[in-house]
Amino acid sequence: MIPKNAQYKSLGLSKADLVELYRTMRLIRLFEETAVSYFKQGIVIGNMHMYVGEEAVATGVCKALTKEDYVASTHRCDGHLIAKGADINKMMAELMGRENGNCGGRAGKMHQTAPEVGLLSANGIVGASETLATGHALYCSMYAPGRVAVAFFGDGGGNQGAFHESMNMAAVWKLPVIFVCENNHYAISTSVQTSTAKGTFYQRAEGYGIPGLLVDGNDVLAVYAAAKMAVERARKGEGPTLIECDTYRFRGHHEGDEQTYRTKEEVQKERENRNCITKMKNLLTEEFMWTEAEDEALGKEIEEKVAAAVAYGLQGEPMKVEDMEKNLYAE
């Protein structure tokens, strides 16, 4: 198990690296909170499954990757896209159903792709990312040695048959894939304690003869340390790793979720004690005397980026109904 408070010095990280991690997490959160505000106005269309509270997972894992590495995502794909380096202007336009979106307005929230940064697939099928990333890793092993693939999935995805099928194939063939379980404790409204025998997933790796790690998913340095180790193994041809990130989503499963399955007190406690952004700000303050002026400057920079993304989305043309089948079939 990676220590809950992994030391940045032992990871070879500088102040600039820590600020980068902090900036990414804050960008993910503000982007999503802004998107929600436009969703409530009917400008962002479709449904919204938020990543708020889980930003450290995507940020820590993607810090260990290169642009050429592949990622298979889920219905909570905003964090993965941003952490991997996707264009937030095109992302916002996509959420608004505009033609200048990264998928022409056709993908919406749950099915975005950004192949230019290695995010090949996001979808709403629970557990599908596991099989897709395994396929990406097979490609890497055959045609792009040195590259790795990552599957992000939730605790609900960990209880799908695809989880075991993918883990077994990846282990047998020693594929360069990292399975990242974002255990936020609720598969829609089903608590992991009532759906999962041990309440955790990392120990299942033992059955496939591969490493299984449990980390604090709200500590970006702990996530990065685990991902760095797993990526190094994969690049050397040593096969897959399972990383379970114990995290928590601060919002409902989707916008409009009444959340009758958990108490307001529980959510508030998690917000106060497990805020990954607050943790990083505190670390920067303690280690580098990070000032409120620096923090405000960074916040303004992020606000301007998100505002520009909104403007880009609003100026785009809405997707045309007659074009909905474009790119569905080979011509």
Describe this structure in words.
With 331 residues, the chain is α/β, with parallel strands linked by helices. Helices cover 44% and strands 10% of the residues. It is built from eleven helices and eight strands. A six-stranded parallel beta sheet has the order 2-1-3-4-8-7, sandwiched between helices. Helix 2 (55-63) runs parallel beside helix 8 and helix 5 runs parallel beside helix 6 (161-173). The N and C termini lie far apart (50 Å). The relative contact order is 0.17. The model has no long low-confidence stretch (mean pLDDT 95).
Characteristics:
single chain; 331 residues; alpha/beta; 6-stranded parallel β-sheet; two-stranded antiparallel ribbon; 11 helices; 8 strands
Compile the SSE list and pairings:
Layout: H1 15-39, H2 55-63, E1 70-72, H3 78-84, H4 88-95, E2 119-121, H5 128-143, E3 149-154, H6 161-173, E4 177-183, E5 186-187, E6 190-191, H7 192-195, E7 212-216, H8 220-235, E8 241-246, H9 264-273, H10 276-288, H11 292-315
Parallel strand pairs: 1-2, 1-3, 3-4, 4-8, 7-8
Antiparallel strand pairs: 5-6
